[in-house]
Design the sequence.
């Protein structure tokens, strides 16, 4: 068949190109621009080369924030994924109570992030907060503004409260897609509850769980608002996660160059971890777990 | 293997069934004889699968009892009944190999590995999957997956019964024949009690010793394929079995005569007074088109289906079908029909009435 050649078709891509340019490329290049220059104000810039990157790579401050960040993401994933699956497995499968649970669980997902932070900030206060006061009355020393362990406990419980529902909802959707015949066949094959989970439910949930893990990893790795509202990164720097540190550096100290280099590396780390995770999961999936 | 007895069994999906219409499965008494192959035939929604699930224990009946060799298992869980069931859509454990899939029911029952290996090998050769044993079940085609399901159903030697719930729906036509033949052979070799649910009459008639026809939650007839063909107990059986189904024509019956719109027709037997809706039923195979004898008929269309011709005609305002042999001549002046008197059945309120010679 003869194909007509019409270069005007390129104009059809133009709107997307403009949109992407303004939403992603131009802001990113601005950051790249900052990262290789130094400024003393007055809009005067000097070429700095890769100096900021070297600075950042040898800065304890960034490495510490990165470790804290990895620990935070690791802990919340280790809690939220199994807990979400557990909740999904124990939810009513249909009828009024199923819808009721779904609505109840979506509630935390609908609350704005700084409101979540404020809720927990007040909830944990020893003088007026229900949690803080109760713990205090029980004789447990709990003060998230002074104690590192208490601060970590608070932001982790807060994240689990806020986001486990997402994992549970996704896992529930995966479970609902399993036809009854699978469970009936398992009964006939005399499979134990564990084997039903291991060989029927888990494989069928794998797809949505991958999405859940990826979403929760990326979100938690970029988390800012909630811990900032609760602890402000403290006590000391105990809960200063990557983005909190970045904002401090860029807006608090106005160190644009280092902050730009920092954020580029931050971006690459997220990209790299997500890519590695995705590749590994897809390969496992191909091999059948 | 066991004899399965259904005693006063009925089931409703409603909590408080009030009338008979609320029952998906109406009261039923039946013995499934040990070692026979049964087909449960009926259209969709007639209660076939409900009955099957009650036998396998996936569903608890609202009333009545089920006995395996005289032992009441009505409330026993599926695992205790020791039955195997194959479902309409293939159920395989995707992440396991074909071998592990086949071994699964045996391993769950704690059989030792040498026995498991031996059985798996036997079953694999039976379903023709020996060279695929080490492959993951994921990624196999629907018919191969279904063969694994069949294999998993057959791997246990001591099952009380093998239940099939329309297992060949997803299989290609040529594989259907092959698998059905294998099932028949299996039945022949091992003598398991088999119950095979289907809505396909060919499948039912070729597979089973006895066909159980269900209609609207009720068993309307249990019989050999010949019995179903020659003496349908219910108009539904006549209509459902046969291609095309039996002709059912409203009539008035007096003694050994039937009157259709006042025209007399001889019957093979005599009948007493009949109440309600009275009809005569005659299979297209026992009707013959003629130039001179019989009752007037208006031929509409002749379909040549290869082995024979199907004549679609109008008979006193009713549609009837007549089957003529492949070589039989059908001409425009053939406008009469005769029925083989011995094969004209009489139905009152849809149920067969037995006459006296």
Sequence:
């Amino acid at each position: 068949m003869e194909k007509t050649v019409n270069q005007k078709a390129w104009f059809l891509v133009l709107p997307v190109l403009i949109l992407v340019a303004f939403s992603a490329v131009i802001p990113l290049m601005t950051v790249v621009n900052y990262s290789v220059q130094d400024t003393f104000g007055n809009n005067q810039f000097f070429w700095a080369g890769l100096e900021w990157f070297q600075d950042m790579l040898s800065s304890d401050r960034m490495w510490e924030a990165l470790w804290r960040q990895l620990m935070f993401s690791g802990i919340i994933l280790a809690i939220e994924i199994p807990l979400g699956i557990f909740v999904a497995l124990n939810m009513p499968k249909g009828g009024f109570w199923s819808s009721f649970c779904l609505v109840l669980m979506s509630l935390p997902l609908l609350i704005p992030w700084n409101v979540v932070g404020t809720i927990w900030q007040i909830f944990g206060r020893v003088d007026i907060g229900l949690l803080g006061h109760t713990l205090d009355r029980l004789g447990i020393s709990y003060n998230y503004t002074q104690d590192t362990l208490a601060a970590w406990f608070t932001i982790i419980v807060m994240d689990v409260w806020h986001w486990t529902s997402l994992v549970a909802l996704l896992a529930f959707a995966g479970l609902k897609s399993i036809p009854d015949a699978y469970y009936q066949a398992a009964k006939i094959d005399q499979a134990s509850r564990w084997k039903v989970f291991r060989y029927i439910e888990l494989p069928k949930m794998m797809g949505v769980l991958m999405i859940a893990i990826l979403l929760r990893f990326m979100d938690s790795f970029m988390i800012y608002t909630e811990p900032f509202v609760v602890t402000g990164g403290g006590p000391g720097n105990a809960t200063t996660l990557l983005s909190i540190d970045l904002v401090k550096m860029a807006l608090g100290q106005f160190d644009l160059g280092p902050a730009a280099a920092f954020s580029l590396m931050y971006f690459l780390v997220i990209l790299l971890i997500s890519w590695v995770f995705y590749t590994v999961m897809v390969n496992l999936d191909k091999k059948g777990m | 293997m066991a004899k399965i007895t259904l005693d006063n069994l009925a089931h409703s999906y409603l909590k408080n069934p009030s009338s008979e219409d609320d029952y998906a499965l109406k009261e039923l008494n039946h013995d499934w004889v040990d070692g026979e192959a049964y087909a449960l035939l009926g259209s969709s929604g007639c209660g076939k699968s409900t009955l099957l699930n009650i036998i396998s224990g996936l569903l608890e009946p609202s009333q009545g009892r089920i006995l395996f060799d005289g032992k009441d298992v009505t409330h026993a869980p599926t695992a205790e009944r020791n039955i195997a069931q194959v479902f309409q859509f293939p159920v395989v454990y995707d992440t396991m190999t074909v071998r592990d899939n086949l071994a699964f029911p045996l391993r769950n029952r704690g059989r030792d590995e040498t026995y498991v290996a031996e059985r798996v090998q036997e079953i694999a050769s039976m379903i023709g999957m020996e060279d695929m044993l080490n492959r993951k079940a994921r990624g196999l085609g629907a018919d191969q997956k279904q063969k694994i399901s069949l294999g998993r159903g057959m791997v246990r030697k001591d099952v009380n019964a093998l239940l099939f719930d329309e297992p060949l729906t997803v299989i290609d036509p040529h594989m259907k024949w092959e698998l059905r033949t294998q099932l028949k052979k299996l039945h022949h070799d091992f003598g398991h009690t088999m119950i095979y649910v289907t809505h396909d009459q060919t499948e039912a008639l070729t597979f089973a010793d006895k066909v159980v026809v269900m209609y609207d939650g009720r068993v309307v007839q249990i019989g050999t394929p010949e019995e179903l063909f020659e003496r349908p107990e219910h108009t539904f059986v006549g209509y459902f079995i046969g291609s095309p189904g039996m002709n059912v024509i409203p009539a008035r019956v007096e003694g050994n005569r039937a009157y259709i719109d006042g025209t007399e027709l001889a019957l093979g037997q005599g009948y007493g007074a009949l109440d309600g809706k009275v009809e005569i039923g005659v299979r297209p195979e026992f009707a013959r088109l003629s130039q001179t004898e019989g009752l007037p008929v208006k031929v509409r269309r002749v379909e040549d289906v290869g082995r024979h011709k199907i004549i679609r005609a109008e008979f006193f305002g009713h549609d009837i079908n007549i089957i003529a042999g492949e070589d039989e001549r059908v001409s425009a002046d053939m406008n009469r029909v005769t029925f083989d008197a011995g094969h004209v059945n009489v139905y009152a309120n849809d149920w067969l009435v037995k006459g006296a010679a």
